[in-house]
Amino acid sequence: MRIDLHCHSTASDGTDTPAELVRNAAAAGLDVVALTDHDTTRGYAEALAALPAGLTLVTGAELSCRLDGVSMHMLAYLFDPEEPALLAERELVRDDRVPRAKAMIAKLNELGVPVTWEQVSRIAGNGSVGRPHVASALVELGVVPTVSDAFTPEWLADGGRAFVEKHETDPFEAIRLVKGAGGVAVFAHPAAAKRGRTVPEPRIAELAAAGLDGIEVDHMDHDADARTRLRGLAAELGLLVTGSSDYHGSRKTVALGEYTTDPEVYGEITRRATGAFPVPGTGGA
Predict the structure, then answer these.
(1) At 263, which helix (H) or strand (E)?
(2) DSSP 8-state symbol, 247
(3) SS3 of 23, please?
(4) What CA–CA distance (Å, rounded) separates 159 from 249?
(5) pLDDT for 101-139, tens place per residue?
(6) If 259 and its partner were Cys, which of 62, 150, 218, 232 is the partner (CB 3.0–4.6 Å)?
């Protein structure tokens, strides 16, 4: 089985619609794909309606968190999307995205970059607006060559010249909320140092003690040394090890299924989840 547990659609900051995502996942030879848009589940219905035969969909979300001033992401799998406490927290995070984006635009204008809210809003479409949409605007304006080049201290990286904080959930609270909604919690790309500061291993141990289920190890932002170190940490802490593309369509160079999760780990995730269950495709519209 080929299993990719971290993908984004136009419901957040990907460039494939949810329907296109599942069709492309099937075309890429995946057996299982997870839809994990940022702080939203709005892509579920479209993805389910288009789910091709032979492909199983895992519903999820990537939750925005912050620990000791460090931005981090928590992948939540197979939770009940209507559970009130987690739903309220997702809405709180999502509602803060628009004023944050407008504040970043204001900072960029002060730096002489003629980006506008209308431009960023057009790029975001119906998705949850975020830094990647602002980064895409910088690419359109010729300020940077790629989206990744916008995530530097010069521009949008944590603490960068145009960075603005948003409401982010305490990860210990995120774990509690995900578990309360019957889901499984996995720390996304924990060693992605090029994105900014990372969470120290002793704090990851505390998250594990609080109920964290796993860490994403095989990821484009982790080099070989980081993966080896994270595998050792996972073994020490009793955490599941996942692998995922973190696919964003044309917004990133990584391909669907470029990194995958072991079927036994996937099986354990589905066994632990009680809020929702993987949906096998029977041939979508």
Answers:
(1) helix 263-272
(2) B
(3) helix
(4) 27
(5) 999 999 999 999 999 999 999 999 888 898 999 999 999
(6) 218
Interval 184-233: pLDDT, tens: 999 999 999 877 789 999 999 999 999 999 999 999 999 999 999 999 99
Strand segments, DSSP code E, in 9-138 are 32-35, 56-67, 70-77
| CA separation, residue 244 to residues 3, 70, 127, 254 (Å) | 8, 22, 21, 10
Q: Which helix H or strand E contains 4, and what residues bound it?
A: strand 3-7
- Nearest alpha carbon to residue 248 among 17, 3, 2, 63: 17
Give exposure, 236-267, as e/b (b: 16+ Cβ within 10 Å).
ebebbbbbbbbbbbebbebebbbbbbeeebbe
Residues 78 and 58 sit within 8 Å (Cβ to Cβ): yes
Quick check: 159 and 151 in contact, CB under 8 A?
no
Q: What does residue 187 show for φ and ψ, rounded to 5 degrees?
A: -75, 120
The identity of residue 224, as a single letter, is A
Both structure tokens of 72: 């981090």
pTM for the whole structure = 0.88
List CB contacts of 154: < 8 A, sequence separation 6 or more.
160, 161
Beta bridge partners of 73: 64
How big is the chain by its Cα radius of gyration, in Å? 18
Q: Tokens at residue 1, please?
A: 């089985």
